[in-house]
Amino acid sequence: MFNCGVMIRKKITDKSSNLHQQSPLRRNCTNIKTLKQIHASMIVDGFDSNPSALRELIYASAISIPSAINYAHQLFAQITRPDLFTWNTMIRGSAQSPNPITAVSLFTQMEKRHVRPDNCTFPFVLKACTKLSWVKTGCAVHGKVVKFGFEWNSFGRNALIYFHANCGDIRVASELFDGSEKDDVVAWSALTAGYARRGELGVARKLFNEMPVKDLVSWNVMITGYAKRGEMESARELFDEVPKRDVVTWNVMIAGYVFSGEHERALEMFEEMRRVGEQPDEVTMLSLLCACADSGALDIGEKIHCSLLEMHSGGLSILLGNALIDMYAKCGSIQKALEVFRGMREKDVSTWNSIIGGLAFHGHSEESIRLFEEMRRLKIRPNEITFVEVLVACSHAGEVKQGHRYFNLMRDEYNIAPNIKHCGCMVDMLGRAGKLEEAFEFIDTMEIQPNAIVWRTLLGASRVHGNVELGRRANERLLGMRNDQSGDYVLLSNIYASQGVWDGVETVRKLMDDSGVRKEVGGSLIETNYVGSTPLFGDRDEYVVGLVRPPVAFVVTAPR
DNA sequence: ATAGGGTTAG
Fold first, then answer.
1. Which residues are within 8 A (CB) of A161 and not within 5 positions of it... i.e. 6 or more apart?
2. Residue A182 contacts residue A152 (beta carbons within 8 Å)
3. Spans of the PPR repeats (predicted)?
4. HSE-up of A87 (CA within 13 Å, CB side)?
């Protein structure tokens, strides 16, 4: 703490230093606790009104510590006349925060106060518009770029290419690109990224091949394009070819494998990354925790947790905390999830969502609902995800009245319109409670269009309660949606079978045969044993995975 | 400046 304080003073008195360089504060202040300590020592030493000191502090909280953006806003509000660099820092930090709207409103404020933007301002504002998919706002900002004469500046133009390529009009992006210098690698990469994000990988690849110059980002753009579409073979080919790799290159590959469900590959990538000496960062660890959560690899998750505690002795970030809660909950260790939750000094909505969802998923409905109430007492605003989880909790607990109460609360008090998942939860809740007619009524009167899942939920509930008539009606609606999921037929077949209506079973079977629907054989994966050791986590090398045969009762429903 | 991660019904 005191070292950091000394560093600020050194920084402030060093007149020759370039403001845009990495200052010690920016490099060393990596968590909100250290940040607050530095701020406190600044106040004690009378540095809190020093403009350069404040600027450094704002940079650290807005850019270096992603979860400290609100702190940055508080600091920013104390400055009477922020300079352009500080405005840009705030817009940049807000654009990369989970709430990019603030970046747009900062830009508006900046205009009202007659602060003239520079070429650095627009890339950040347009990034926010892109993240929000605010096409109209982005186009209005395009007008400002022209107004301030940055259309012919490579920063301004590339920011426009980025915006139009990703969410505006790709033809506009293309035209702007044609006006670029032939060897502007940022323009090439921005356009390529846009085509890749739209799924036009062929066009993206053509551009990539045609680039007169490529840098590391160009390669990362193309690899990302493949990885996000699940084309991991192509991603791998480029990864093997790339002349230089950085932490992003590795992260893209790891996240791609996790996305494609190839968790073993993801872990192999990570091991390889460590072997060649690339330092993993927070994004790496988040992907790995996601892999553990998806595959139920509790022991690896625990080891990641341990190494995280060693790496970040000053406390884990909110994002890592949330990922740990989710991992522990999904791997069945709800106690550890609660421990992480209680140990977090800073929490956000996702933190609460992770634990409320985890508890609901594990059948601890009362505890889940209790925490939701605690959240409301603490005036933390639940979002639509929170309500999905709370409704799951009510559904599993059989709390029909409470569920209805929360469903109404969502709109009346929090102004959140129910989405298809909320409605799905309500149907599930009513269905489980045996209120099948009420569930049917709910679907028919709800404001949004029901989807197949909703009808399938009712169909499943009809099976549980042995209601052939409602099952038939639900199935009629379901099949009317022209989908070919074998589970729908199987469920209906099960309803008939459970009631001994054998000709009904036969009819459904015939329907399945005629439409060419096939029921896949069910199965589950569990860890049964492991052998050997890994250089990373100590004693683990490979899993022997056992395939558990489906239960015998299932055979009744499987096709010939 | 352009590239990377995140919780949600059955």
1. A173, A176, A177, A180, A187, A190, A191, A194
2. no
3. 83-117, 184-214, 215-245, 246-280, 317-347, 348-382
4. 25
CB A194 within 8 A of CB A177: no
Statement: residue A268 has pLDDT above 50: yes
d(CA A462, CA A440): 10
pLDDT of residue A507: 65
Rounded Cα–Cα distance for residues A464 and A498 (Å): 9
How far the first Cα of chain A sits from its last, in Å, is 70
pTM of the complete model: 0.79
Of chain A, the percentage scoring pLDDT greater than 90 comes to: 61
The residue among A331 and A528 whose pLDDT is bigger is: A331
Q: Which helix (H) or strand (E) holds A357?
A: helix A349-361
CA distance A534 to A304: 13
Q: Nucleotide B8: nearest residue by CA–C1'?
A: A385
CA A291 to CA A268: how far, in whole Å?
A: 12
**Nearest residue to A359 (alpha-carbon basis) of A328, A385, A381:** A328
Predicted local confidence at residue A317, as pLDDT: 84
Which of chain A's residues 301-360 bind strand B, using a 7 Å CB cutoff?
317-320, 322-323, 326, 348-350, 353-354, 357
Q: What is the pLDDT of residue A226?
A: 95
User: Which of chain A's residues 185-214 bind strand B, using a 7 Å CB cutoff?
Assistant: 185-186, 189-190, 193
- Give Cα A372 distance to the centre of its chain: 22
